[in-house]
From TrEMBL, chain A:
<feature type="domain" description="ABC transporter">
    <location>
        <begin position="20"/>
        <end position="256"/>
    </location>
</feature>
<keyword id="KW-0813">Transport</keyword>
<keyword id="KW-0547">Nucleotide-binding</keyword>
<protein>
    <submittedName>
        <fullName>Ectoine/hydroxyectoine ABC transporter ATP-binding protein EhuA</fullName>
    </submittedName>
</protein>
<keyword id="KW-1003">Cell membrane</keyword>
<dbReference type="InterPro" id="IPR003439">
    <property type="entry name" value="ABC_transporter-like_ATP-bd"/>
</dbReference>
<keyword id="KW-0029">Amino-acid transport</keyword>
<dbReference type="Pfam" id="PF00005">
    <property type="entry name" value="ABC_tran"/>
</dbReference>
<keyword id="KW-0067">ATP-binding</keyword>
<dbReference type="InterPro" id="IPR050086">
    <property type="entry name" value="MetN_ABC_transporter-like"/>
</dbReference>
<dbReference type="GO" id="GO:0016887">
    <property type="term" value="F:ATP hydrolysis activity"/>
</dbReference>
<comment type="similarity">
    <text>Belongs to the ABC transporter superfamily.</text>
</comment>
<keyword id="KW-0472">Membrane</keyword>
<dbReference type="InterPro" id="IPR003593">
    <property type="entry name" value="AAA+_ATPase"/>
</dbReference>
<dbReference type="GO" id="GO:0005886">
    <property type="term" value="C:plasma membrane"/>
</dbReference>
<dbReference type="GO" id="GO:0015424">
    <property type="term" value="F:ABC-type amino acid transporter activity"/>
</dbReference>
<dbReference type="GO" id="GO:0005524">
    <property type="term" value="F:ATP binding"/>
</dbReference>
Length: 260, 216
């Protein structure tokens, strides 16, 4: 019989404790239980990949952390502060530590690329326009789009838009970056560029990443830990070599051979 | 039918007076309906039922009663309650209020057409609610609704002659007054008919320019 990973935290709290922690989190949509008393935590600086069949609850976890939806039960803690249950005010404060990149980019089409990156740092973090623009230009340089400052997002390719979206999330200097199937909406030839960028960011920063992806090679490259989800629970968890090389669960093996 | 150019030139000074009033009523009525319609649309999105419900009832009531009845009501009933406005003000308020119940539907559709991903991105960036509306949602919504709002401007223009019944001397009022004094009907009515076409056309040109500028 397998280890019931849903009952115990997967990483032991060390020193300051985990940066992200979900305890006994349940989320239902009507009669459908998407997450079932889920426990897991992520230590600061770690890169965790969530894999599993669609509908298994991976994206829901990211959406819970981004406060785009609320759990029905359980507690969520980020950086030692309660995200759920918590007051609106507290929730807004804690949320600033989290950034998210979406499958469909979700850039603001009514703003230039530069303004997409400066809007939140100015209005939320209180940076001056100059500071925000300097930060934005650095980030656009990092993602290889320094020349696209004054362009509207709609004039960019999908891959370029996604790189802007990554830069936009980073402009808020989040402690946790949530990546929700960020290459799924891209044309095949554009996927590699975005994944390379994320590999760079994973390597060169100490940002904590939670990543839902179907790109198994990418998951293998960047992950410290891979969580295999099935039916709202963590079926299996471990380092990528283990999950991709020698999984304990037959279901994991099947899933990985089907997507690879 | 005999056409008398001298009747036309006799009418022209009155026509210009009427045109100014018509344009005034149209411009102010449009502004009121655009602003108030947005207010209604936003109020209908508040989480509190105690705001949505009365707004829904009032706007439904205004939308479902004739503008003409509203004009009479505002002009003859409100003064009895101690509220007095000039005839033109009354007319502008009536047109603006009446059409605001239509523009609110336009705004609603425009707001709903903004993809949910835009809201989610705003949340992910921790933008405050107010800023999300002003910087993200409304600029995208308004862009979508300009053509539909434009149609209501034309509709409002064609409803301005109703102001005649509350003594406002807009174009039709001037034409009628002129006819009563001179017994000439063809010339003044033709002149204002042409004027309506010209103003409609200019207004739609203006709106199309605005639309193009916004969409860019």
């Amino acid at each position: 019989m397998s280890v019931d990973t849903s009952k115990q935290p997967l990483t032991t709290p060390a020193g300051t404790g985990p940066l992200v922690r979900l305890e006994q989190v349940t989320k239902r949509f009507g009669d459908n239980t998407v997450l079932d008393h889920l426990d897991f935590s992520v230590d600061a600086g770690k890169h965790v990949t969530l894999i599993g069949p669609s509908g298994s609850g991976k994206t829901t976890i990211l959406r819970l952390l981004m406060t785009l939806t609320k759990p029905d039960e359980g507690t969520i803690t980020v950086d030692g502060e309660r995200l759920f249950p918590a007051s609106e005010k507290q929730c807004r404060e804690v949320r600033k530590k989290i950034g998210m990149v979406f499958q469909q980019f979700n850039l603001f089409p009514n703003m230039t690329v530069l303004r997409n990156l400066t809007e939140a740092p100015v209005t939320v973090l209180g940076l001056s326009k100059d500071e925000a623009e300097e930060r934005a230009r650095e980030l656009l340089d990092l993602v290889g789009l320094a020349d696209k400052c004054d362009v509207r997002p709609t004039q960019l390719s999908g891959g370029q838009q996604q790189r802007v979206a990554i830069a936009r999330a980073l402009a808020m200097r989040p402690k946790v970056l949530l990546l929700d199937e960020v290459t799924s909406a891209l044309d095949p030839e554009l996927v590699a560029g975005v994944l390379d960028l994320l590999r760079d960011i994973a390597r060169s920063t100490d940002i904590t990443m939670l990543c839902v992806t179907h790109e198994m090679n990418f998951a293998r490259d960047i992950s410290d830990q891979v969580l295999m989800f099935d039916s709202g629970r963590i079926l299996e968890a471990g380092p990528p070599e283990k999950i991709f090389g020698d999984p304990e669960q037959e279901r994991t093996r099947e899933f990985i051979s089907a997507v690879l | 039918m005999n056409w008398d150019w001298s009747a036309v030139s006799d009418f022209m000074p009155h026509f210009w007076d009427g045109l100014v009033v018509t344009l005034e009523a149209l411009a102010l009525g449009s502004l009121i309906s655009f602003a108030l319609g947005l207010v209604w649309a936003l109020l209908m999105r508040t989480p509190t039922r105690w705001v949505r419900w009365p707004v829904g009832v009032v706007t439904e009531f205004v939308r479902d009663t004739p503008l003409l009845v509203q004009l009479f009501f505002l002009f003859y009933v409100l003064p009895e309650r101690g509220v007095t406005m000039s005839a033109l003000t009354t007319g502008v308020v009536a047109i603006g209020l009446h059409y605001s119940t239509y523009t609110m539907q336009v705004y609603r559709a425009g707001i709903e057409a903004v993809p949910v991903g835009q809201w989610e991105a705003a949340t992910a960036l921790s933008l405050p609610v107010r800023r999300t509306w002003t910087a993200v949602i409304l600029p995208q919504a308004v862009r979508r609704v300009v053509p539909a709002l434009g149609n209501y401007v034309i509709a409002m223009l064609k409803d301005t002659p109703m102001l005649m019944v509350i003594t406002v001397l807009e174009m039709l009022g001037q034409a009628r007054l002129f006819s009563q004094q001179t017994f000439r009907f063809t010339e003044p009515l033709t002149v204002i008919g042409v004027a309506f076409v010209v103003v409609s056309y200019l207004a739609s040109l203006l709106l199309r320019t605005l639309e193009r500028r916004l969409v860019r």
